[in-house]
Amino acid sequence: MTPIVGAELVAPLIGFDATFIFVLITFLILYLIFKKFFFEKVHNFMAAREQKVIDSYDNAAEVTRQADELLAQYTEKLEKAEFERREILKEAKARAEQRAQGILAEANERAAEIAKAAAAEIERDRQIAVETMRDQVAMLAVLAAEKIIEKQLDEKDQMALVDEILGGSGQDAWTH
Question: Please, are residues 175 and 134 in contact by the beta-carbon 8 Å criterion?
Answer without folding.
Answer: no
